[in-house]
Amino acid sequence: MSDFAIVEHGGKQYRVAPGDELLVERTEPDLKRGDNLLFERVMLVSQGKDVRVGSPIVDGALVKAQVLAAVRGDKLIVFKKKRRKGYKKTQGHRQNYYRVRVDTIEA
């Protein structure tokens, strides 16, 4: 069994382990490459056979990650229509993300 944690960030939950790379929503505006990002809402920590589950978060647990890049997601088309009313509206949306690498899990 490897060490892993479940963290909450941007309204989503992620299963992370040291060395993992993932895309998380850009909640802090001005982080650059090499900056640290802390995940303080840790829901579960597993270290070997020791598993700690929070209610809802584990006290004193922290996951440190390093920002690799600030990226934008694929474009999504948002189309709204009301039938028989002549109403149509098309919009595009691109979400902002940080690509991060998990460094350590501290519990």
Please, could you describe this protein's structure?
This protein is mainly beta and 107 residues long. It has one domain (4-106). Helix content is 0%, strand content 62%. It has no helices and 10 strands. It has strands spanning 4-9, 12-16, 21-25, 36-39, 42-47, 50-53, 62-72, 76-82, 87-93, 96-106. The strands form 3 sheets. A 4-stranded antiparallel β-sheet has the order 2-1-5-6, with no helix packed on it. Strands 3-10-7-4 form a 4-stranded antiparallel β-sheet, with no helix packed on it. The chain has a two-stranded antiparallel ribbon with strand order 8-9. The two termini are 17 Å apart.
Low-confidence stretches: none
Helical segment count: 0
Q: Give the averaged pLDDT, no decimals.
A: 94
Task: Compute the number of structural domains.
Answer: 1
The radius of gyration computed from the alpha-carbon positions, rounded to a whole number of angstroms, is: 18 Å
The largest pleated sheet is described as: 4 strands, antiparallel
The first-to-last residue Cα distance is 17 Å
Instruction: Give the DSSP E fraction (strand runs of 2 or more residues).
Output: over 45%
**What shape does the CA trace take?**
elongated
The chain-level structural class is: mainly beta
Number of strands: 10
Sketch the topology as an H/E string, one letter per element: EEEEEEEEEE
Order of strands, main sheet, comes to 2-1-5-6
